[in-house]
Write a structure and sequence with these properties.
13-stranded antiparallel beta sheet, 332 residues
Length: 332
């Protein structure tokens, strides 16, 4: 009986040992993915801020500027692109809506971001755009990959429509989580005007005819949960200017917007709570279950060897119950 039990335990030990790498290196890359129907809303504020008055073309101090970012998964487009791409694809339709202290629209910029559901790498397909302009993204945007590493990443800047490194600066504590801090500085860069302007009659085309151009710089900061790759906090030191042309009445430049843009505290708390619940699922596949199966396999193997050793102790009767006769001498 001991030998049979040891063989059963050995079989279970081999099964558990095989499940450990399978969960981590086979199941996790296929099971961990961004849902195609995700919806998320985020509110950021700059208090105080500098904002242009398009009626007088003068910059003035205001108590606050609010930026509402909405993200909606487009399931229909995801299914369409997956048929030709041959992999799981997520399509996010996003909108950044900027409002002044009176709640009126300052500008709004829509985007369509298409990426691989597992790796978060961009997928290039018809419809990829920023503010109606077709783009070809390189690098990440909005979200880092699962199991983010301590290294620099290419990050896509929607204002300039270009990608540049965002640098890993260290590991810090944030709301009880060990998170990675990333930082990117975009130098003064000429960028397109928003297609939709807050004043009737002022359009990107009419401004361009005056010779006036829009310039932008920002220092972008993210605190990223390394398990899920989701930012739990974001901040930007953001500046925009109009430069040159006849629209400014002879002035060299005027500030369009300047402020320290931060996530509203209640949205930070909600984001941290969501990340904490999602990171448990990732840890189950990458850490808890693989190491648990490996530890269980080692224990079962040790128990199987112990039972096998006890079944073969000297002096124990032959397990078959048969007794061989004494040898008979043979004479030549």
């Amino acid at each position: 009986m001991r030998r049979k039990a040891s063989l059963v335990l050995l079989a279970f030990a081999v099964f558990c040992a095989a499940m450990s790498p399978l969960l981590r290196w086979y199941a996790f890359p296929r099971l961990a993915k961004i849902p195609a129907n995700q919806y998320q809303e985020e509110v950021l504020q700059a208090k105080p801020a500098t904002l242009i008055d398009y009626g007088t073309m003068q910059a003035k101090k205001v108590p606050e500027v609010t930026i509402v970012q909405t993200l909606k998964g487009n399931v229909e487009e995801s299914d369409r692109i997956e048929q030709s791409a041959g992999r799981d694809v997520v399509v996010w339709d996003t909108l950044s809506y900027i409002a002044g202290p009176d709640g009126k629209m300052v500008s709004e910029i829509p985007e369509r971001y298409i990426f691989d559901a597992h790796s978060q790498a961009p997928v290039h397909a018809t419809g990829e755009m920023v503010d109606g302009d077709p783009v070809i993204r390189t690098g990440i945007e909005y979200k880092w990959p699962f199991l983010t590493q301590k290294r620099d990443y290419e990050y896509f800047d929607a204002q300039s429509r270009t990608s540049a490194p965002i640098h890993y600066k260290g590991t810090v504590k944030f709301h009880g989580l060990d998170v990675y801090y990333f930082e990117q500085t975009v130098p003064w860069t000429k960028v397109p005007l928003p297609k939709k302007m807050p004043v009737k009659g002022i359009t990107a085309e009419s401004v361009a005819k005056t010779g006036t151009t829009r310039w932008y710089t920002t220092k972008r900061m993210f605190w990223v949960d390394p398990v899920t790759g989701a930012p739990v906090n974001g901040e930007e030191l953001h500046k925009e200017e109009l430069r040159g042309g006849t629209l400014l009445g002879g002035r060299a430049k005027v500030t369009v917007f300047a402020g320290d843009v931060k996530m509203r505290p209640d949205y930070v708390d909600a984001t941290v709570a969501l990340v904490k619940s999602n990171r448990l699922l990732v840890l189950l596949l990458t850490s808890y279950l693989p190491w648990g199966f490996l530890g269980l396999g080692i224990c079962l193997l040790a128990l199987a060897l112990l039972l096998e050793a006890r079944s073969r102790r000297p002096g124990d009767p032959d397990p078959s119950g048969a007794h061989l006769p004494d040898p008979v001498p043979v004479n030549a």
